[in-house]
Write the structure tokens for this entry.
Amino acid sequence: MVLLRVLFEAALRDYLLRHKHYQKVKDSVFEEQAVQGRPFNQKQKRDFTPALSNMLSWVVKNTEIFSSDLRRGTKTSIDNFIRDLSRLNGIVHEDGVLTDFSEAKQIRNNALKALETFLES
């Protein structure tokens, strides 16, 4: 489960970098923080790396970055991954949180289309 989460985050970051959207994600976080009265200074902006949640939020709002033939399936997969993420984080970060094979398989299957898009396009 750790590997799936890490792979998803790395693949999404790589996709955003390859398709020149990574800075847009960062800029959206800077704007959100400024609106909330917590602006980044220049050093913070230089050193900032978006979290998985930042990247997912931006991608869900900007699905036009995916080709039209992949958009619907990828968006569904991302939505499912977001839904599964709290459970996945619990499995990864909390002691004593257990899962069975069928749940792990379902989480993997839910993320598969998005991973294919991130890695193959």
Remarks:
- The mean pLDDT is 94.
- Residues 30 and 45 are 8 Å apart (CA to CA).
- The helical segments are 2-18, 22-35, 42-47, 52-61, 68-93, 101-120.
